[in-house]
C-alpha cells in the first residue's frame, strides 16, 4: 500500500504523469522527421564539405586523397582571396543599412489613420517574392553606362562623364548592394510591422499626455521596444550578405572586364569548385565562409546584450 506523506497533495499517478520521461518515445516520433531533415540537409553537408576540404580528388570527384591543410594553404595563396573577402564585407556592411531604412518605412506604414496600408504592404513585399535574377535585368538597364536612367539623371545635373557603374571595380559592388537593400526591404517591413503591433498603445498615449513629440515617441518607445526584431533582421541580413552570388553574377555578367576584381567569397567558391574543378579548395572556401559568418554572428550576439531590450 502506497503511503502518502503529510502535505503531499499529489497522488502517485499524477506525479508519474508529470515526469517528462514518462511519455516514452512520443516526442521523438514527432520531432524525429524534422531532426532527420536537419541532419541530412544541413549538418551532413557541413561535415562533408569539411572532409572534402582536407582531400584532393580528380575532376569527377573520384579517388579522393587526404592532404590535410594543403587546400587551405593553397586558398590563402590565391591572389583573389583578399579582394573577395573585402568585397563581401563591403557588400554586407552596406546592405545592413536596409534595417534602419525598413524601420522608418514600417513606422510610417503603421501611423494611425493611414489609408491604403494593405496596398503599401503588398507593394513593398512583392519585390521579395520575385526572382532576383529577373529583377536584376531591369536594374542592369538602370545602371547602364551609356543609356541608363541613372547616368541620364547625372548628365541632366551637369555630370559630363558619369561612371560605368557595372564595369568599374568597387562601384559595381556598391550598385549591387543598393539592389540588395531594395530587394530586402519588403521582408524587413513585414517583420517590423509585426513587432510594431506588439507595442502597447497605452505607452504612446501616456507619452502624448506628458507632451512627448512624435519624434521623441519614436526614439524612446518605438525603437527600444523594436530592438528584438531589429536584432533578428541584422542577423539575417548579415548572413544573406555573406551568401552574395546570384545577384552579383547576374548584375555583372560573365564577360564583364571587372568580374575578376569584383568576386565575392561565394563567387570564388563557384570559380574554384565548378570552373577550375578544384573541389578541395572550393570546399575550403565554404568552411572559411562558415567561420566568418560564425564570427560575425557571435559578435552580434555579444553586442546585443548592450542595446536589445526584451520585454
Automatic annotation (TrEMBL):
Predominant subcellular localization, coarse grouping: membrane
Record's keyword terms, sorted: Cell membrane, Membrane, Transmembrane, Transmembrane helix, Transport
Residue ranges of the region described as Disordered: 1-20
CDD domains: TM_PBP2
Localization in the cell: Cell membrane
Domain called ABC transmembrane type-1: residue spans: 84-300
Membrane-crossing residue ranges in chain numbering: 21-44, 84-106, 118-139, 173-196, 225-245, 281-302
Cellular component per GO, a single term: plasma membrane
Membrane topology reported for the UniProt record: Multi-pass membrane protein
Domain of life of the source: Bacteria
Biological process (GO), any one: transmembrane transport
PROSITE patterns, per database record: ABC_TM1
Family according to the record: Belongs to the binding-protein-dependent transport system permease family.
Record protein name field: Sugar ABC transporter permease
Organism of provenance: Arachnia propionica
